[in-house]
Design brief:
The complex is a heterodimer of chains A (179) and B (246).
Chain A lengths: L5 H24 L2 H17 L10 H20 L26 H9 L3 H11 L5 H8 L3 H19 L3 H12 L2
Helix pairs in contact in A: 1-2, 1-3, 2-3, 4-7, 5-6, 5-7, 6-7, 7-8
Chain B lengths: L2 H8 L11 H13 L1 H22 L7 H45 L7 H6 L11 H10 L15 E9 L2 E10 L2 E9 L5 H5 L10 E6 L5 E7 L18
Antiparallel strand pairs in B: 1-2, 2-3, 3-5, 4-5
The chains are: A mainly alpha (179), B alpha+beta (246).
Chain lengths: 179, 246
Amino acid sequence: MGLPSTQGMVQRLVDEHYAALYRYAFRLTGSATDAEDLTQDAFCTAQLKLEQLREPARAKAWLYSILRNAYLHRLRTEKRQHVVSLEGLAEVPEPPPDPLPPVDAEQLQQALNGLPEVFRTPVILYYFEEFSYRDIAEQMDLPLGTVMSRLARAKAYLRGRLLQPAGAALANEGETDGL
Amino acid sequence: MDCRTARFLLDFSRPLTKELEETEAEALQDHLADCAECGALAQAERSADHHIGMAMRAVPVPEGLRERLLQRLDAGQRPHDRRRWLWRLAGVAAAACLVLGVWGFVGWRNRPARIDVERLADSMIVPDVSNPLPDSLERFFQDQGVSTVVPPSWNYRRLRYYGLVDVQEKRVPLLLFVHEQDQARVYILSDKQFDLEDALSKQQNAGSGCRYEVRSSRDNHFAYLIIYTGDSLEPFLAGGRDRAGS
């Protein structure tokens, strides 16, 4: 049996990861069009650099990393960096109410859009659930402690925006926008 | 395990990412089972994570995305291959141009030059030697790094000078024969240096009261450009007679 062709390997990567990559891209950009473009860019880059993928088991992390780099490149090009700071935001979240209110998809995206990229990326990866802290640290080329700290603050921010009763959420919204 | 450690480890004990050692995970579970406050916190954390995680992943994937991706990748592959092929072609063309350029330049630099007889005829030579033999002359030039064949049938007793001179930036053996007031300069031109065919076609007066003629060597690789004064070359040739009949 011969080695799989480049085209065959790329098609397999698309089949296995395109949906997850698109979702990740959507959460990063907040736009379906940008997400599709970014996903396409990521796979094109992957196709060109396929020989760099030495461990097929690491394909998912490799693709996510490519997509994030493409996203950061776009951010730099478009100078669309968010400048929201999370200074003053508590790392330990308040216990969420029981039962939890439903999370509105648009509200979630707005909350994500309000986060600086250094917080947004780890929290998205975290909630995609299949990435461990170590995976996230590796993806972002950061020490584990830094990732933990950023995640704790980003999670607290999201919970404050999404899981608080309506009145508290509105109050938090005003607070974080000004941070 | 205390509450502080348990709450720190909570983040590492998510259902799909096993980041804790087995013993740590067991100790954490034991603590959560025993400590009502930490147990409730863990439950709330997992519930909140699950709630936000569900929303985070709830992104509808556009219909036909997979096909569009594959289509673009396929289209991108071909232009990439074409680009790579064109780059290779351009590289080969550039290398060929370079080789041709170098070859042309070297050829131009080494091309046989046309002899400028006027300049030679106007130059002055002071005789200072006498009577070497043809064989020793060729050895002499050979020692100087110039392979040549001296003209036969000349009266070498009348040779007054020999040496290498610069002719149009090329080193050329020169023989000077003197008889009474007349002299004959013989420039030995190689076909590697000069266009002998062109030189051989010139048989006319060189000016400055001189005559000249060009003769070919036996092997045709050399030409003897002879610039002389007097009526003829006869006094300079072997067996030639003096004007005075000597």
